[in-house]
Amino acid sequence: MKAQKQIISYRRRCNLIGQGTGLSHYILLTPSAETTQEGNNK
Amino acid sequence: MAQTQKQTTTAKFANTGHGPNFSVLEIGDPDHVAVVEADTAYWALVDRNELPQALGGSMIEDFMTRAPEFQAEINHLRTGLQLSAAYVNPTERCNLNCSYCYLPEEMRKNGIDMGEEKLMLALERLLQHFRKILPEGVKPQLIFHGSEPMVARESVFAAISRFKDDFNFGIQTNATLLDDTAISFLREHRVGIGLSLDAPTAEIANRTRKNWQGNGYYDTVVSVIKKLVDYPALNVITTVTQANVHTLTEMVDFYHELGVRVVMLNPVRCTRQGGMDLKPDNHVLAEAFFKALDRSFALFEQTGRKLVIANFANVLAGIIGPTGRRLMCDISPCGGGRCFFAVSADGEVVPCSEFIGMNEFSGGNIFRDDPADILASKPFQEVTNRKVEKILPCAGCAIRHFCGAPCPAEIYKVSGDINAPSPYCSFFEEQVRHAFRIISQQREDAYLWESWQTETEISYCWK
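^ inputs. structure came back:
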């Protein structure tokens, strides 16, 4: 079989979804530096 | 028997037997087509000359191995999230009368204020609920929204002062009432600030965003943006209409020159007649929007400084990492009534700000009802059970989990039924194709917000 060298496929995951990362509708919620720091420490 | 079972569950090809349903999308890229398994939001960009191998080779085996994990992730995103934000309207009134506002005119002109005492009570009741459901140490988001929340400035600032340790606050404002004292207060309390500006020139911007006497505030808003441009929690919304759709590229230049880092170019919601009348043609919108995106990329290349167009970045994020998105419009069910809800000035709670003024979607009153009961109410269930699988043509659409068929409030107003496709359907299709083209060019990082890489991690990669 011919090698599949021309495929781009990947996926990223956020383990902090909904935990202060800011889920909203058409308004972007920008997490404060404080929140980001807390989130990253989890 | 065991041998027979093994044979029947081994998939070697897509689209037959136990093989996955791989849709092939023409994305307008010279090198790649997209292959999508819609239920899991899996995608691969495949050399357009080697597609037969992709539909019957090791890619199938690779996908089948990971499919349960992808499916679980999508299921969690669609049904497993907790409420983490509330929008609160401290007043029904607004000092402006924008042409496309989704709130009833009478409400904005002569409406009520919640008042400081009741605003405090509302936030206390919300906080009690969030403390029950969110992990310890996670602050819920509380966004003051409108109408114009700065009309109720004293109540809003008192609430921020009292609950500063309990919520991450945000305010969406037209900027006209943000004096230097207010700006200092919001900065000091690290309040996220969303402002609105519709065009790079006063002539166009003031056509749609104006006060009750018809006067625009372009100069005031630009002045406020200049004062806040270094503030990390600033973002600016441009509502895209027939009036400004042809200025989007200039708008990108304008914002970038000012030093703004995050904007949203949101197509106007057709939730009321004013919005419907100003809706841009989908094809015209797509063309102008993609040119604006291209311009933001060119500016990034020239200067090394990003202007993130966040509504597009979210679509891109939703493809690359479904759980990494920040906006919950482009997934079904949308975030309304499950990730966030909106509290109107009289305490009525609706799934999203877009539903304010639609009493049939009230799930209860924050001063009377337990938020848990509101979330479980029939009007909320109608929105939280709105899934693309129930909507035609979305049910068979390969990009149904990259689009989400937003917005239920808009669609309800346009079609009389929330289970219908969006008036922007063909624009959303093109937007996803454009996102795939950017991935094909491996330029996605130029379009995503700065913290994207640290907020997310690679969970799968084809090798």
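Chain A touches chain B at residues 1-2, 4-36, 38-40, 42 (CB under 8 Å). The helical segments of chain A are 33-41.
thumbs up if we can close this ticket
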